[in-house]
């Protein structure tokens, strides 16, 4: 495994019945970086995150979180998670939700600080169910960071949001990165990877088909266009 990687996959294969979700992938999450897993529906992005979180086990290969088996409690300390389709009690107020969630962790952030970082300080008295989709997503982000994680997993954090809501969440993510948190996120949007990521792994059909900085990725796409137009 990569020296100093916070989390890693090595030669990982994963099937759901006959469906191959991951077809032999390897990746390292480095300290201090924002790594984006970019790809279309069914590429295997969520499966990669689920493995790193220890929610599912690989059929083959090795998975490490802070150098350990991600299904151990020790490995899970220090991570924060924002998955797709979070269902939260609609009548609870945002402040209560953050306070209760923070109480699960040994050294949480205060409610005010978590709310400030996530850009929901003005929503603390509002019932969760009365918020817009974009506001709910930012509250989910506050819940992911309130435990004071070193490493944060965000599965399609801005899917379905309008551009204004998306930019607000991007800013919230940037504030956390400035605070020293490392991030793995999945996205369908090249602009999102461009806005946030230091490094991108492009996934398709259970494989990593391209990897590098967003600039190098753009250069390759442009080159391919020129190539296709002239041949
Ligand atoms: P999306 O962008 O839609 O979230 P993804 O890149 O995250 O897609 P995965 O959710 O990891 O992709 O899915 C990879 C493959 O595994 C897909 O073909 C999907 O249909 C299949 N798959 C995922 N979860 C299950 C499951 N619980 N049971 C059966 N097949 C599954």
UniProtKB/TrEMBL annotation:
<dbReference type="GO" id="GO:0016887">
    <property type="term" value="F:ATP hydrolysis activity"/>
</dbReference>
<protein>
    <submittedName>
        <fullName>ABC transporter ATP-binding protein</fullName>
    </submittedName>
</protein>
<keyword id="KW-0813">Transport</keyword>
<keyword id="KW-0547">Nucleotide-binding</keyword>
<feature type="domain" description="ABC transporter">
    <location>
        <begin position="7"/>
        <end position="230"/>
    </location>
</feature>
<dbReference type="GO" id="GO:0005524">
    <property type="term" value="F:ATP binding"/>
</dbReference>
<keyword id="KW-0067">ATP-binding</keyword>
